């Protein structure tokens, strides 16, 4: 994809250009930068609701790099009422001090680069960020992506197990308990990103024993 220089911010063009040369499927996992991220939103309606915060932490291969992390609050007019406040702990005055939506997302893309996205129930978080990108810049997220819920299901049950039938087994809370991860800072974007990173780290260790050692094997591509 060619970036329309002069029409799009430099950060968007920089991001798009990273995918002129996609990551190779035979890349060893130890050479891959994974970006584990989470969004907190005002609700689950992709049309009506908005992103309130984005949190992320990077993994280089199997090592979590807490120094390579990202967090941003977005300035939004509404936060979904008292229920959203009780879940996220984000107050209207917090959002008033946040960044404008376009600036926040551009900063996230600068942080993300061409890293492989990892998230729990990733489709929703990717769709929320993609909606902002589509609305403001006419692009989407180009990164490869992995859902930790689906990856855990694949390792534990096999690739043909129907995740929808027993989705409760693969909630983040339940998986953290199963893999010995202490729940801390739950329902905040950086907190959930770090919990997901710990889960992904443990799942990778299981995957290696099953011969999953390259990007292609991880993504089944």
TrEMBL record:
Supply the InterPro entries for this chain: DnaQ, Ribonucl_H, RNaseH-like_sf, RNaseH_sf
Gene Ontology cellular component terms for the protein in this record: cytosol
Q: Which GO terms describe its molecular function?
A: 3'-5' exonuclease activity; DNA binding; DNA-directed DNA polymerase activity
Keyword Hydrolase appears in the UniProt entry: yes
Q: State the source organism's domain of life.
A: Bacteria
Exonuclease domain location, by residue? 33-209
Keywords for this protein: Exonuclease, Hydrolase, Nuclease
Annotated GO biological processes are: DNA replication
Write down the PANTHER family for this protein, in alphabetical order: DNA POLYMERASE III SUBUNIT EPSILON, PROTEIN NEN2
Write down the NCBIfam families for this protein, in alphabetical order. dnaq
Task: Identify this protein by name.
Answer: DNA polymerase III subunit epsilon
Organism encoding this protein: Chlorobaculum limnaeum
